[in-house]
Design a protein that fits this description.
about 170 residues, alpha+beta, Alpha-Beta Plaits, two-stranded antiparallel sheet, two-stranded antiparallel ribbon
Length: about 170
């Protein structure tokens, strides 16, 4: 059964621990121009009592249909059939940015040589039965790594709970 990372924006406090763990796991040094795989965005929302802030921790979604892989003319991007991870073969990447045009989430980032760099879902950790680094360190439990069906059920129960409260 495939697993996915799920973000509960109601629990995320924007601490950045997930982004730091990702940089540590992947030996990323942004000060040298290396692209970060996970980014935190602050989103303001208007509430009756004023302005509220939510945080959005974003990285590759490892899409089931992987539009970035379909858009890659060299086949440098592929989906691992065991883990569901979308990975990049650096030797095959020609830096054409077709993947960036195909990605609906704006995820692809490029290194100084113009080659795609992205989250691999910590494939080495997942293959060893561990959680991705970003999920492991989340102090609020906002990031979860679970079977896709369980994530869908959890979302459905939350929606049902909200509907039941309004009746």
């Amino acid at each position: 059964m495939k697993k996915a990372i799920y973000l509960d924006v109601n629990l995320c406090v924007g601490c950045g621990a997930c982004a730091v763990a990702c940089m540590d796991q992947n030996d990323i040094y942004p000060e040298t121009g290396q692209p970060e795989f996970r980014r935190i965005y602050q989103i303001e929302e208007e509430l009756v009592s004023g302005i509220g802030i939510k945080y959005l921790s974003v990285a590759c979604q490892h899409c089931a249909d992987s539009p970035c892989a379909m858009g890659c003319p060299t086949g440098a991007i592929s989906k691992d059939s065991n883990t569901g991870s979308v990975t990049v073969d650096q030797d095959r990447c020609i830096g054409c940015h077709s993947c960036a045009l195909a990605c609906p989430f704006g995820i692809p980032r490029y290194d100084a040589q113009g080659k795609l760099q992205k989250c691999s879902l910590c494939i080495e950790r997942v293959e060893a039965g561990l959680e991705p680094a970003c999920v492991r360190v989340c102090p609020m439990g906002a990031l979860k790594f679970e079977e896709v069906n369980l994530l869908q059920q959890e979302r459905e129960f939350k929606i049902i709970g909200k509907v039941a409260k309004t009746k």
